[in-house]
Amino acid sequence: MSIWQWRSRSANAASMGSQVSLHDSSTERSHSGTPDVGRRYDALEHPRIIEKHFGEAVRARCRLLQKLCGSGELDVGPPDLVHVTGYDSYHQVEIGEHHYITGLDVSSEAMPIAYMNTLRLGRKAADEEGLVCTFCTLNLFSQVDVRIRFESERAFQVYAVDCAADEQVQLSDVLWEETFVSGCIRSMVINSDLRRKVPGLIEYPIGADNGVSYCENVIFLLCKYLPRGKETGVDVTVHTSATGVQNYLVETLLRFLSITPGLYDYAIKCLQQLIDSDPKNEFIYRLMQAKVAMGSNSNELEAVRLLNSTAARFLPDIAVLHRRDLDNTIDLLNAQVEFLLQRKDYELALPLAQKATSLVHDNFLSWQQLAKCYSGLEQYENALLAINCMPRLAQGSPGYAASMIDLVDSNYYKRPMSMGPKSDLYSVETNYISHSVPHSNHMAMQTMIFGRIVMSRPSHTAGCIEEIWDGPCTKLGPIYGPDSCNLLAFVSSSESNAIKDRSVLQRNSPLARLSSGEERVYSLLMDIVAHIGWNRFLDIRARIFVMRSEHCPSPTVVPALKQKRLCEKWLDELFLNLYEDLCVSANSPLHTQNLENSGLEWQLLGLTLLRTRYIDEAVACLRTSILVRFDVISANKLLHLFLDGKLSSLDIDVVLRLLVANAAYAARFYDWCQTLTILVLRRFCELHPKDVIRSRIQGLYPPDTGILPLMDRFLDRLDYK
Predict the structure, then answer these.
(1) How far apart are CA 437 and CA 550, in angstroms?
(2) What is the pLDDT of residues 464-489, one digit of tens each?
(3) C-alpha angle with apex 672: 666 to 675, nearest 5 degrees?
C-alpha cells in the first residue's frame, strides 16, 4: 500500500487530539521517504541532542514560530523536530533529547510514526518501554505546526497548533497536503544552502528510494500549489519580494526537477493538465511550463514556443495594467530576458529588460538582468548606472535564525576547532547514552560527542571513507550556518593567527562578509573589471558618479557635478571591497618558490582569487588546500566551477575523487539528499555514458568501501523517467 492510499484512508481517524490505533500497520505501512527506516538498528544511526532542561527544544520551537508568524518573517521555518523522552531508570529521572530532520514524508502521520518507531527499536529492549516521541512539522500555508505524540504503534496522538494563536486546529486532507508540500520546500531549500544547516540535522531525499511514481506525485503536488507560491515567501537576501515565480515553491520545483532530469517532460504534461482543469490560474502554469523547458537544457525550441504563446495570450495593454497583471508581466519579461541571456543574445534581451525596469522600479532581478545586458553589449556606463538603481536587499534571512535557535539559545554544539570532539555531557548523561544503545562502545562513543550532541557514525555502507570520517570530519565537524563561507570559524585560533598574509585574513573575516544580494552585485562589478581592467573601470566610475565624499549641498556646486549621478552608499562600499580584494589578488605570492602555507591560508587565498576572477590561480590554491586538509567549502567551490564549465582542464578522475570525498563528508553528518552531488553526476553523465562514470568511481576505491552503494543510489536517481 502506498502512503498516498494510506493517508486517504486514515486522515479522518487522526483528527485533532484523538487517540488512534493502527491495526496491522506493521505489515501495511509504507516506508517511503526514508532509506531502511523499517529495520532494527544494530547501532545508533541518528544524532542525539541532549537537553539541559527537559522539553526546552519544543518550548523554544513554539516561541520561535509564534515570533516569526507574528512578524510575518516565517521564511521556510525550522527543520522538522523529533523529540524523545527517555528515562534513566537508575537515577529515576526523565532525560530529553532531540534532533532535526528534513525530507520525511509528512503527507500523513504514517511516515513520522514509522520513523519514531525505529527510534524505539534502536534502543535496548529494556529502554523501549515508556519511550515517548514527539514529531513537529510546520505547514507554511496555514501556518500551523502539526505534532504527533507517539508512545506505540497503537497509541499516539495527532494534532495541529496555530502558530500565531497557540490554539489547536482541525486536521484535514487539505492540511496534510499543504504540510507535505511545505516539507518538500524545506528539504530542498535547506539542503542547497550550508548557511541554513545545523548540527543534529538528518536530511533524507524526497522520494529517492520510492521509484518514479512517487517522484511524479511530488511533482504534481508542487505544480498544483503554484498559484499559492507567494504564500511560501522568498529569500529576501536575493529578491525584493515574492512574486508568482520568485518564491520558495518555484525554487523547490525547479531544483527537484534538476536532480530528477528524466521527469522534465512529465512536469510539462502535469502543468498542461492543470491548465485544462484550472483555467483561472492558466498564466502561472504556462509560464512555469516555459521555465521548466528552459531548465531541461534539451527543450530550447519548446521553451521559445511556450514563452511566445504565453506573451501573445497574456501580455495585455501595458498602459492599463492592474497590479496582478503588472506582477505577471514582470515575471514573464524576466523569464524572456533570462532565456536570452543564457544564449548571450544581449541585443534582443535589452529592450525587454528595459521595459521590465520601467514598469516596476523595485524588482532586483529586473535591474540585475538589465545590467547584464549592458555589460554584454560593452555599454559599461549604462551597466553601472543600472547597478546603482538596484534596490537594497536585506542583509540576512530570518530563515537562518530559525535554523540556529537551539545553538544560539542553548549552546548545545561545541565545534572541535581542529582538536577533535569534546563532550559537555555530565557523567549521568553519558552513562544514559551508552546504556541506551545496543552493543555500544563507551570509548568510541566519547569520540562522537560534540558538546551536547552525540554524532554517532552511520553504518559503514552509508557513505564511509575512513580517511574522511576519521580525519577532517572529526577535526572540523559539520560545516554549517552563516560562518560556512570559509573555515575561519571552524579551526583553532592558533591556526588563524599563524596566517602570514594578514590582508588575506582581513578580506575573509566576518566583517568583510557580503550578503547574497551584495555577492550578486559584486559579481557584476567584477565581470566588468575582468573585461576592461581596473583603471578604465575607475575612469568610467569617475565620469558618471559623484561619490558621497564629493557631494555637497552648497549652492555653489561645480557645474560638471550636476551631470553626474550620486553613487549609492552601499555601492560605494562594494567598490572599496572590490579594490581591496584586487590588491590581495595582485600581490598574492603564488610564484614564490618554496611557499609554505597552511591549508586554511591556501583556502582563504583561493576564495579571494576566485572572487576576483583569477580562476586558474584560485583552482590551484583550493586544490592545494584540499591536499593539506580536505574541507567541504573548497570542494563545493571547485564542484560549482565544474558545473559552470570552468574545470575542463582537470582530469575526470580528479573531479570524481573530489566529488566522492565531498559526498562522504556529507554522509558522515547524515546528509542523504546531496543535491550538489547529483547535479555534478548529472553533468558527468551528459559528457560520458553513465556506465563509464559508475565504473570509474568503482575503480577509484576498493569494492568494500562504504561510499560505493551511496554513489550508486545517486546515479540510479538519474534514470527516473
Answers:
(1) 69
(2) 999 999 999 999 999 998 899 999 99
(3) 80
Report the predicted TM-score, pTM, of the whole model to 2 decimal places. Answer: 0.92
C-alpha angle 570/574/575, rounded to 5°? Answer: 120
Give the Cα separation of 379 and 49 in Å (integer).
55
Give residue 40's pLDDT band: very low, low, confident or very high (50, 70, 90): very low
Other Cβ atoms within 10 Å of 717 Cβ, number: 20
Burial class (CB in 10 A: 0-12, 13-18, 19+), 178: buried
Taking residue 317's Cβ as centre, other Cβ atoms within 10 Å add up to 7
Q: Residue ranges of the domains in the chain?
A: 3-203, 238-362
Residue 31 has pLDDT above 90, yes or no: no
Q: How confident is the model at residue 562 (pLDDT cuts 50, 70, 90)?
A: low
The angle at the Cα of 354, spanning 352 to 356, to the nearest 5 degrees, equals 70
Backbone conformation region of residue 315, classed left if phi is above 0, alpha if psi is from -120 to 50, else beta: beta
pLDDT over 90 (residue 399): no
Q: Which cell goes with 69?
A: 508568524
Helices 707-717, 675-687: crossing angle, 10 deg rounding: 70
pLDDT at 208 over 80: no
Positive or negative torsion for Cα 234, 236, 242, 246 = negative
What single-letter amino acid sits at 39?
Answer: R
598 φ, ψ (degrees, to nearest 5): -75, 165
For 481, the grid coordinates are 550556518
